[in-house]
Structure formats: C-alpha cells, structure tokens
Amino acid sequence: MKILVINAGSSSIKYQLMELEDVHHSTLLAAGLVEKIGEPTGRIIHRKYAGGPESKFVEEEHLPTHHEGMSRVVALLTDPDKGVIRNASEVQGVGHRVLNCGEVYSDTVRVDAKVKDTIRDFFLLGPLHNPPNLMGIEVAEEFFPHAPQVAVFDTAFHQTMPPKAFLYAVPYEWYTKFRLRKYGFHGTSHKFIAQETAEYLGKPLDQTSLISLHLGNGCSMAAIRNGKCADTTMGVTPLEGLVMGTRSGDIDPAAIPYIMGQTGMDAAQVVNALNKQSGLKGICGVNDMREVVEAAGGGNAQAQTALDIFAYRIQKYIGAYLAVVPGLDALVFTAGIGENSASAREHICRGLEHLGIRLDPVKNHAPSRAPREIQQDGVPLKILVLPTNEELQIALETKQIIEGHNG
Ligand code: ADP
C-alpha cells in the first residue's frame, strides 16, 4: 500500500511516500521538504529513492501558499524522471502529523468534519502547529480526493497518563474551563520506541516497561509502564521538561514577570526567548549537540556547563521515572542525539551506577545504526539505542485505519 506522510508547518511541508506491508516491510520511495512558503523565494528539496538511482532535486520558486507547495509535491512525485508514481491516484492514504487534539482522541483517527473541528478547537493550545497541520490536511484533500486522510496526534500516546501525572496543582477551573494540563508531545516516537523495545526484548508490549529518551532538537522522556505512558516531561506545550537545543525546559514561572520587568519584554517575547534562545544555545551559544560536545572537548567552559545542565536534568527525570515505573526493562535512547551522541549518553549515565544503570564504554562508542544494547555484560537493566521513525509509525497507523483495524 502506498502511503504519503505529511508534516505541515507554518511555512513548510515535509513529505515521505512509502510503500508498506508492515513495520519490517516498508520502502521509502521519495521524500522531501518544501520550505519558505509565503516568502519571496520558496524552495523544494526532493529525493527519489526508487525506480532508478537515488537522486536529489532542488527547485526554487515563489510558493504563495501551501496549495502551491502541495501542487509542486504532486508534480514531483508524478514526474516521469523525478517521480515514483504515474498518477496521484496511486496514493492510497495520506497520514498527517498533527500536534494536539487534547483529550478528544487517544488514538489515530480518519479525518472527518468532527476531527477538523477538534484540530481547530486546539489552535490556541498549539498555535504554531495545529493551524498549519489543518491546512496540510485541507490541501491534501484537494490533491488526493480519493485517498483517506488520517490524523496521527503527537499527544495521543500520552492520554493514558493518570490525573496525578497530567494535572498541574493550580486552580482546578483552569483545567475544567481552559483545558490547562500536561499533554505531552513526541507521542508517535515514544509509542514507536515502546513497540520496538518490546520486539527487541521479545516480550509482549503490555508486559514491557521502559524509560524512553527522545533526544533530538526537541527533547522529551516518557515513563512507559506495561506499554502505556504513565508520565512524560513535556507539558501543556513542548516547553516543559528537559533542556533542549533552544528551549529552557522546566523553569520557575515567576521568572517570567521578573524578566519582563528587567528587560521591558512582554510575556510573549519572554516565552519566545524561552523557546528559541534558551537551552544549550542560551548557555553556550550553539544548539547543535555535535558543536557543544566538540567545544566542551576543546576546553570551552560554557559548552561544558551546557552539557552538564542538559545531562543533569535528564538524570533527575531518570530518578523520578524509576520511581514511576516498577520492574523497568530498559532505558532507551533515541532521536538525533540519543542515537548518535555517545558522549551525551555517557554524560547522562555517568554517576547513575547506584541505580543499576551501567554503561559499557566500548559498546557505547561502537559506531552502528542498528538497534543495540550498550549496558555492561550481566547487568539486568538494559540500556538500548533504538532508531526512531515517526514517519513509518504514521504510515503504519494510516494503513491500519484504512484497513479498518483501528479507530
Ligand atoms: P528533530 O527534533 O529536528 O527531528 P533530530 O532528531 O534530527 O532533530 O536531532 C537533532 C539533534 O541531533 C541535533 O542536536 C544534532 O546535533 C544531534 N545529532 C545528530 N547527529 C549527531 C551526531 N552524530 N553526534 C551528536 N549529535 C548528533
């Protein structure tokens, strides 16, 4: 079955076209990124992986709206040279990454008018993502009218959190009236990792417990008990929790009016700085973990401090989640940093030996892209490195919905 996966942002459309049977039998046919929609010059980077040698095409042209962006995607996918299908009707389903559906859905759903209303209803709680996500759905409906559209929500996997984990201790009507609560994000990745962990360990998912560490540009952890999310670090927005590339993570909210008073910034400007100028970047000036590690190794004290704060915050959450998840099977690293940075993993695990977390330095540094374990021999608690694949998970869930196994 050919499934198109779409992740629409405010000025971008990321896409992947996959042919898939199941998690073990999937082929990426083509993928790309449309960016700078609405700017004077838009750009499309399109990669073709099937039907000839792997090739990359870059185009620049003015793309006033997502409609023109999607029109170029369809033209590229069906182009005799650059494309991989003859006709848009070969796409049998379109899976969309959607940020937030609140408490309305705890699983993937086929898009209908009610689903669109729900996405709209959460514009205020996902102002940067929900509006373009809906736009992505609406343009895909135009170009693929025959194909079911499916919404895969970043918040859905976290809906199993109990109230004691998702409620903030604030006036209760802020929750009942304004829906203020912890939602959590990266749910598609944490769910994929939970399934991959179960498979790696040869256990049923509902008997598998793990702490999942999704460490990319955005970073979050999930405490997963018997296959279900018990707690996660991100909150009502993705700002809460871990230190990230440019996000502060946890901070005393009283710091916000204080900084407003000191700088003359308004609340939105301070929150913007907490999202875009903080985290690793705020401490040492760069947000790419490779550069932070290199600078720290070269004796840059600020970079070392950034690395220390990053790792320490994760260590504190590991401690907390060990309390939340009895009978833990594995600590699992994933995403750009989690999969690739042996230094970050070492920094995070160092000093946690008393908790049974014992990293093997040789296994940790052995270069590999495969799922692997990196704990010392004979230690019961496994430390795994598992590649995440949110697009594949979205495609698989889209296929399940179309085949009627779900939702
Ligand atoms: P996104 O959240 O945008 O999907 P990724 O999962 O791709 O992000 O992760 C991006 C992060 O991964 C960056 O901080 C980058 O420095 C880090 N990263 C990628 N490759 C490596 C590597 N080989 N070593 C260290 N860090 C890496």
> Which CATH C-level class of the largest domain is it?
Alpha Beta
Number of helices: 15
Global shape: globular
Any idea what the CATH architecture of the largest domain is? 2-Layer Sandwich
Helix proportion: 25-40%
**CA-CA gap between termini:** 19 Å
In the sheet with the most strands, the strands line up as 5-4-3-2-1-6-8-7
The gyration radius over C-alpha positions equals 21 Å
> Could you give the order of the helices and strands?
EEEEEHEEHHEHHHEEEHHHHHEHHHEEH
Number of domains: 2
Number of strands: 14
Strand proportion, as a percent range, falls in 15-25%
Determine the CATH superfamily of the largest domain. Answer: ATPase, nucleotide binding domain
Mean pLDDT: 96
What low-confidence regions span 5 or more consecutive residues with pLDDT below 50? none
From the helix content, strand content and strand pairing, which structural class follows?
Answer: alpha/beta
Largest sheet: 8 strands, mixed
CATH fold group of the largest domain: Nucleotidyltransferase, domain 5
Small molecules held by this entry: adenosine-5'-diphosphate
